[in-house]
Amino acid sequence: MFTCFIIITILSILFGEQEVTTNVIYGSIVVYLLIAIMWAFIYSVLDIIQPGSFAIGEHQVEAGRLLFIYFSFVTITTLGYGDITPVTAPANSFAILEAVIGQIYLVVTVARLVGINISQFMNRKSG
Prior knowledge:
single chain; two-stranded antiparallel ribbon; 2 strands; 73% helix
């Protein structure tokens, strides 16, 4: 819950900005990373509640929570190596949701930053 609160707080600050600064770019990156870490926590809780929610390859070392951080980053980037796969309906749903949220976040954030940057450029050019 705390990670979600931090994500929402940073996003509200980012979307209130009218200039693209290095802090805005850094904040956007931090939010993306925090989203992945939040999902890793969700996966680890799901695996505790419903053991066997994920099929883990034989070659994959059982690393506990680190394994879900790895899976989350692979999922949010839609890379999908396939060495860890969700096998239950809730795990599948969460993986799909994370992949979609990750892509939507990137599209919306890049569009917003580019739009603000173009606006800044036009204001400097005309002013």
